[in-house]
Amino acid sequence: xxxxxxxxxxxxxxxxxxxxxxxxxxxxxxxxxxxxxxxxxxxxxxxxxxxxxxxxxxxxxxxxxxxxxxxxxxxxxxxxxxxxxxxxxxxxxxxxxxxxxxxxxxxxxxxxxxxxxxxxxxxxxxxxx
Length: 129
Prior knowledge:
- By secondary structure, the chain is an all-alpha fold.
- It has a domain at 2-71.
- It has helices at residues 2-58, 61-72, 107-115.
- The radius of gyration is 38 Å and the shape is rod-shaped.
- The chain starts with a helix and ends in a 14-residue tail after the last helix.
């Protein structure tokens, strides 16, 4: 009986040792995952900080003005162009068509307009509104 009890205790100790070892490995694996997630969170926060700084720089009034001049070919309004009263804005009467603007800054639009005949709509494009 004593021998059976000793064998049973040894087997139980082996199973308990194996379970503790497996638990230790699982805990280490989870700890490694937590460290990897913490590193990823740190890297993401750093990337967010860099992107916010870049966004702040790109949206400064000076940078926006330089980009609008460079890419949109727009200039800041002159003092004569600013109206003090919004009800003085001239509106086109109903039914009156707008004339072509000879001062178009985009060369591709000017070429496209000069190649088509004015007052005749293109058959492919459909009627102009």
